[in-house]
Amino acid sequence: MFRSRELSPVELLEAIIARSDAVNAGINAFTETLFEEAMPAARDAASRYARDGDLPPLLGLPVATKEKHGIRGRTLSQGLVARQHERATENHPVVERILQSGGIIHARTTTPEFSCATVTHGPLWGVTRNPWNRQYSPGGSSGGAGAALAAGLTTLATASDIAGSTRLPASFTGNVGFKAPYGRIPGLAPLSADHYRGDGPMARTVADAALLANVMAGRHPGDHASLAYAPALAPSSGTGAGMRIALCIRLGNYPVAADVETNTRRVAAALRDAGAMVEEIELPWTSQNISRMMFTHFGYLLGPAMEDETAGSEGWLAPYTRRFMSDARQAAEQNRFLDGVRSETLLQAQLADAMAGFDALICPASAVAALEADGMYLDGIDANGERLEHYWQGHMTAPFNIANRCPVLAVPSGMADCGIPTGVQIVGHPFDDATVFRLGAAVEAVLPWAGGHPEDFSAPSSMSPY
């Protein structure tokens, strides 16, 4: 539409600003808006389209960036009250590449403290709510990104993922989220060395997610682990006919809610009807063992980093942040680093064996259909008749951070009984990004969701817990 002059980048940004002014108060998706700085960039983009020529891939598109993706000269707090006035000295690599590609950063999105929760609330920014049903969370930690996309406040958004922080918000808000394989998209040192983590795109459609993933990907001098550029490819319009797909509902013993299972099987059935070969498999995992693996890993890297960053200001922290650091510390005391690596490599081998002969694996993103917007979950969570010790055990994303060379695309699968979306994960073989985007496009074709959106709203629904 920009190229044909049907729409101007200025008109699009004006519409997004008007939409944000009208509805963001009801969901609280932004930490700050950059509308004044964005408008001149939109005018410049409009001029460049008028001149044609060689145009960069994101030219004129508004992009909302996660607050942790620092912008030089702007605040970089990680959601911490004690650091709310600190400023970034450089652009995060994904910010750098968005700007180089003509994207217009018009807003920054909310997160929980240190991006260490799968709900999005904290003392600094309050509670972010799901546009589909504001009783519930958009998920976390990239909850502001998911909420902004679902509410029509941006066209694209950045996210990050160390235990599901891209895929869970995408699933809870009806969006598409990509957890790239480790190294595909450069991060910021020193935690770029953490092989669980990764930055990536969130968008409303598979093609949009691929567009932003292609911009983000490639080697960067600041990230020694970053890989050579390998495009995610523009998804085709195929239906997945001929593909061999493994379906795993529980990933071992995750207590999957009935509506989540129904929607996951609906995706599998639609692909089978379109000509894909779908076979149901089992995996020998337990959510308890995966939680132990995950927190052992956190106990040797992210946990100590958080303790260093918050030393002297512990009293300002949200309860979930203190719980995270305590769990990580305890796991490191109980397990050696080598114990964690042994468990991780066993899980990776089990996944490789299970996926042998298949193009990809499909499973739910979360066993629980929803989280309360202001929930702390310090005492665990009820999940399908079971009481889980840690609420993260209700999510099915962490195994693929442990097996983090596998690309994973989260796409919508339907609506939960509580009125918010559910999602499935499409898991590929190590570094096979193209297949997960191809299969994601097939799911989108056989179960189209583009154009679906929550009803309008304006006022917050309840008080903040802070």
From TrEMBL:
Q: Which residues form the Amidase domain?
A: 11-436
Q: Annotated Gene Ontology MF terms?
A: catalytic activity
Q: Which InterPro entries match?
A: Amidase, Amidase_dom, AS_sf
Known PANTHER family for this protein?
GLUTAMYL-TRNA(GLN) AMIDOTRANSFERASE SUBUNIT A, MITOCHONDRIAL, TRANSAMIDASE
Provide the family line. Answer: Belongs to the amidase family.
**Which protein is depicted?**
Amidase
Q: What is the lineage of its organism?
A: Bacteria, Bacillati, Actinomycetota, Actinomycetes, Micrococcales
